[in-house]
Amino acid sequence: MSLKWRYFLFIGLIHVVIALLSYQLLRDQKLWFIAAEVLMLGSLILSYSLYRSLIKPLQFLSSGIDAIADKDFAIRFRDTGSREMNRLIHVYNEMMDNIRDERAQVKEQHYFLEKLIHASPAGIILLDYDDHITDINPQAMQMLELQRSVIGEKLACQKHPILEEIATWSAGKSGVVHGKGQEQFKCEVSHFVHRGFRRKFILFQELSREILAAEKRAYGKVIRMMAHEVNNSMGAINSILQSTIDAYPDHEDDDLADDIRQSLQIAMDRNRRLNGFMQNFAKVVRLPEASLKPRSVQQLLRNVHHLMAPLARTQGTDLQLLLPVEDRTHPMDEKLIEQALVNMVKNALESLEQGGEIRIRFDKQPFQIVVADNGPGIDPADQANLMTPFFSTKPDGQGIGLTLIREIADQHQAFMQLETLPNGWTEGRLIFRIK
Which of 251, 285, 413, 425 is the most exposed, fewest CB within 10 Å of its CB? Predict the structure, then answer.
């Protein structure tokens, strides 16, 4: 039974009892009986007035509770004329105004933060209380080559070397993490409080481009200085040596003169080789700026395959070209990319030496060009140094090829990866950043 009917029942019983008592006691005294009836009527009127004064605030509170339950914070109540009711109404209206303003402010902040996260140049991954991925911004997807399908999955279950490592980090830890190739990321794990509980988020900042630019400035200055000194010195020395050779008479019986001329000629040839050695290094520093124009990726790969196929046949290597049915154009400098791919195929041929198989392929997701071979693979001890400028595993290598490929990739907003897969194939990849 509701409070309203219980109140009416209580008041009704009291007045029925009073009426019966008045009738029994005052039925012979008509004036007093009438007076008692008038008083009882006044009591009923007063009881109903008290009912309205007491029950109406409860009805008002009930309506307010229903509005809050329905999340309708636009409802406001008007003054009733009762001081107590008006005070309660003013408090309720002020509370609803504050809630409405705070909700609007929270929504605006949430919208702003969501836009900020998605527009951030840094990669951001948000985690829930159990380290499941709840959101990932476009920059992180591009950096780590991830898809939005990872949302809802546990961070530690991702088959990604960087995420597998970061999954073991606690909040507050930061450091530099190396990817599969030249890419390096500064990573930081932090936390924020949501509904009273801590949630982690991860920030990624790519350092590869800054590091590459700093390395290029450093070794470029050294190479230019060395090339200048070597060229100047070699020119003067060779001139002196040639003058000395010319100064000796060419007599058949003069063995000493022949030995001297032969020795000087060897010295001149060695100087020329040294000059060529320095010119190879200078090629990396003097690499022309890329002229980016839309080019057919399939046609470019066909050209490289056609160019390198004769060299592959001479050592019995099967050079295959694997292309998707649908072609794709991309802004690039055809000559530079072709030079990078020729170097990649040459490296694969040198690793095989004889026989074997090389595959040139183009993948659309992620957007990459791959040169793969089934050679001996990369020594794990050398993996970390492969992208070091001028590092080479060959006894007489200068490390020019990989450095040149790396520079060309950087000019095309791309990066290079080189690794041996568990199936034994070694892949060199040019991965383009598609915005």
Answer: 251
